[in-house]
Specification:
Elements: H1 14-65, E1 82-89, E2 94-95, E3 105-115, E4 149-158, E5 166-175
Antiparallel strand pairs: 1-2, 1-3, 3-4, 4-5
Length: 177
Amino acid sequence: MSRQRTRQSRGITLIEVMVSIVILMMGITAALMVVRKTAQSNRRTLTALQAQLIAEQTLEDITAMGCSPTPPCGNLAAQDRRRYTVWQTAAGELRQTQPPEGVVAREYEVAVDVDSGAIPGSIESGSAGAPAVNRDLVSGVAGSTGNVANVRVSVSWVEAEARAGRQVVVLQTRVSP
C-alpha cells in the first residue's frame, strides 16, 4: 500500500504578502511617474503653443500695416528693436500689464526685429536674410532695391521647473506694399 501524503493548505506567508506589497508599490510609483511626466510635457507644449500664438498675433498686426511706398517701409521703422512683456493668465487672458497678486499668469517677452535696406540701421550685423532684402531686384541696376522688409518676432519665457534658461519661439515673414 502506498501512502499518499496530504498537504494541508496553510495560506499565504507573511513574506509572500510583503513581496506582493513591494511589487504593487513599485507599479504604483512607476504609474505616478508616467502621469507626472505626461503632465509636465503637456504644460510645456501648452506654454510653447501660447508663445507661438502671441508671436503669430504680433506678426499679423505688423503685416497688416504693410510697407509704405514712400519712404520704403518707413512705417515699419518704429517696430524695429521693439521689446515688451505680456502675461498669459491661466484663464487665457493676454494682459499688457502685470496681473495682480494671486492671479496665475506666465510672463512672455516679445522682441520684434525689422530688417529692410530702406530703413537705415535696421540690418544688424549684415543679417539681411536669404535672399537678401537689400539686394538689387533689377539685374545690373545698382540701387534697385525693393520695398521689402523682413519681420521677425521672437517670444521667450522661462520654464523654471523643467528647463534651464529661456525658451524661445521665432516666427518670420516678409512684408511689402
